[in-house]
Amino acid sequence: MSETQSAPQPGDAARRFVLQRIYLKDLSFESPASPQLFSADWQPQVRLEIGTRSTEVADSIYEVIIQITITAEQEGKTAFLIEVQQAGLFHITGIEERLMPQVLQVTCPTVLFPYVRETVDTMALKGSIPPLLLAPIDFEALRRQMEEVRQQESDASGLS
Hints:
This protein is α+β, with helices and mostly antiparallel strands. The chain contains two helices and four strands, in the order E-E-E-E-H-H. It has one domain (16-152): SecB-like (Bacterial Protein-export protein SecB, Roll), CATH 3.10.420.
C-alpha cells in the first residue's frame, strides 16, 4: 500500500510557528484591606485591564507579553490588586508581513491566555480570595477595537 501526500505549496517549507518558551515576566499581588477584608460581606467591584505587546528579540524570535491588571474595590477601598505579565517566546518564519500583526496580537496571546488565567486564580487563592475564573478573551475583537481607536485618533488629529 502506498502513502499519498499532497504536493508542497510554495513557501510551506519556510513557514513556522513554534512556541519555544512560556514564562512569568512579572507578578504582583497586594491586599491592603486585609485582614478586615475577610470579615466583610464579599461583594467587590472588579476592574480588568488587559494589554499585549510584542518585540522581535532575535531573528524570527518574538517575545509576546500579555499584561493583566485586576483591581477589586470593596466599600471604596482597594481589596486586592493583581498584576501579571505572562510572556512567551515564539519562533515565527514564513508568515507574510501583512499577517504578522494578526499572529502577534491574536494567535500568540490566545496561546498564552490559559497560563495567565491560571496564575491570576492561583494568586487570588493564595490571598484567600475566591478564584476569579477569567472568561476567555477574544483577542481578535480587542485588536479590531484598538485599530478603530487608532483610526479615530488619527482622524481627529487630522482635523486639527
